[in-house]
Amino acid sequence: MSERFVDLAVENGIAVVTINRPKSLNALSVEVLEQLGQVIKDIEKDDKVRAVIITGSGSKAFVAGADIAAMVNMTAKEARDYSIFAHKVFESIEQLPKPVIAAVNGYALGGGNELAMACDIRVASSTANFGQPEITLGIIPGFGGTQRLSRLVGKGKAMELILTGKMIDAKTAESIGLVNVVVPPEKLMETAKEIAQKIINFSPLAISFAKEAVNRGIEMTLEQGCKYEIELWTDCFTTEDQDIGMTAFLNKQKPTFKGA
Prior knowledge:
Strand content: 15-25%
Order of helices and strands: EEHEEHHEEHEEHHEHEHHHH
Protein name: short-chain-enoyl-CoA hydratase
Shape: globular
Organism: Pelotomaculum thermopropionicum (strain DSM 13744 / JCM 10971 / SI)
Keywords: Lyase
Family: Belongs to the enoyl-CoA hydratase/isomerase family.
Oligomer: single chain
EC number: 4.2.1.150
């Protein structure tokens, strides 16, 4: 039986996914990516799960990067396959119709930063550090870093981080828009769960439509994105949740959404 590197715990509608390879600072080996991809598939099918938190085991690292020991002797084809598979897993996280929060508890470097960026919201411990140090290894980011980083922080800052390979602390990451909120280490999971709980009180259909509108719209022109938003807005009015939410508002009541 193969060793488990990705743990899943579900409580009160919130799935906590933990990358559990602390001796290697939770590095993203092929096995870790395979298990993470399968866990995301299982979560998508589980109607009891309304929100997801991804974190790393231990206090040192969220994910310190890809598995350099495994990469050092890769052929070009093997490296390409590794990159393609990681992209597939990260896209499954980004496209999951449920909200995904990264709880960054330590180093989020290379593939770790790329994993965090594939999530919808990033909560960081004050001890966390971020970076894309691939340039120091003679390569470039290969799990989406050159694309998601510029979309989050802008081209200029992304270029600086990618071309210098420098590491930044959590407060700096927050100031450039890479991180949503920074909290003390002991408050990290509590804060992530509070955000998840707030989101799951809303309509799961509206949440999925909102994610889709933002994620797909950012790839479009403004005109195309606005047209796409109109279609998803219209879809909201085919749901019971729209009627529940608006009726409750007019009656000064708290809505109980059905996800229908």
